[in-house]
Amino acid sequence: MITDRNAPSGSSAGAPTNGPGSNGHGSAGDPNAFNAIQVEHIVKKYGDFTAVDDVSFNVKEEEIFGLLGPNGAGKSTLIRMMTTLIPITAGTARIAGHDVQKDPDAARRAIGVIPQALTSDLDLTIEENLNIYAKLYDVPSKKRKAAIDELLELVDLTKWRSAQTKTLSGGMRRRLEIARGLVHSPRIFFLDEPTTGLDPVSRVAVWEMLTSIKSHRKLTILITTHYMDEADRLCDRIAIVDHGKLVALDTPPALKASVPGSNVIEAQFDNAPADWEDRLKKLNGVTSVQHEGASMYRVLTGDGSRTTTELVEAAVHSGVKIRSLSVQNTTLDDVFVHYTGRQLRDELVKAHAFVMPPRPGLQP
After folding, report:
1. Does 184 map to a domain?
2. 80 and 219 fall within a common domain
3. Given CA atoms 318, 323, 328, 333 in this order, what sign does their dihedral have?
4. What's the pTM value of the predicted model, to 2 decimals?
5. Cα angle vertex 74, ends 101, 212, to 5°?
6. Over the Cα atoms of the chain, what is R_g?
7. pLDDT tens digits, one per residue of 308-323
8. Minimal CA–CA distance to 194: which of 179, 213, 174, 176?
9. Eight-state DSSP code of residue 164
10. Are residues 225 and 283 in the same domain?
11. What does the alpha-carbon distance between residue 111 and residue 161 come to, in Å, rounded to a whole number?
């Protein structure tokens, strides 16, 4: 059994574990730091289907912690249990020291939650949306305007405070959602797929904004994502979730270092013979070969230079044309393949087709 050294004794968390991160995002490296989030052997079942299966991990104060996995892996279900939106079948979750089952109101007061869907009222202005949520969280009227002014400045929406939400771009609406989740000054911030549907420029802008807000407000942030670059860029530590289980947990550099082979060769061929994948596996230094379709192969190797030379020589000798070739360092995509046996981008297409059973009392 693989354990998170920050998780409770005996808890299953994933592999490998080197403690909180060294990405420069925060102060998560102190082993004595307070655990903002504690999850112990948490389980969620819907009838015979297990959506989350005995997951345990801790998140330190001011850490950015990522849950990485395909759609249907259990990431959103984990967040919904931690944020008191759905009941826990077994196990415990503590948010800012509060048990979410025994003291849900105290847990809710400590958190801000941004769901994947955009939920701000389209007919209200930016400022009106923020004002309504501030009132719902009982932010005193004297503090309300100052809090909204500060948040609009943080998310760079001051100039558009009087604009109707329906006139905003997708990136601006996401920034409004983030500001809305912070209007009551929570200590812990949950974001479910924060950049889904955004263009590349808007995604980078959201990353930079989250990093700035986290530093400015000393937040603990937990995000779910299926974007490898997002997890790598933002997170101090990453937990890889697959079929409801936590299969690996560590800092991004440590996760990548745990994969055999320090380099990745991506090559596309014309007229490759049927046994071409087997031939590539026999090249010096190669630890694994993945056929990605369309005659594209991804080769992990411990010696990128030597393997590349031998690959080119093998192609010339066999009369195989190389259409493209690139060499890069190991990525989180390779980490996911290593621990789950398949590629994350494939799993995004094959998400588990689970249908939520009807709630009691709602049947016709």
Report:
1. yes
2. yes
3. negative
4. 0.76
5. 85
6. 23
7. 999 999 999 999 999 9
8. 174
9. B
10. no
11. 24
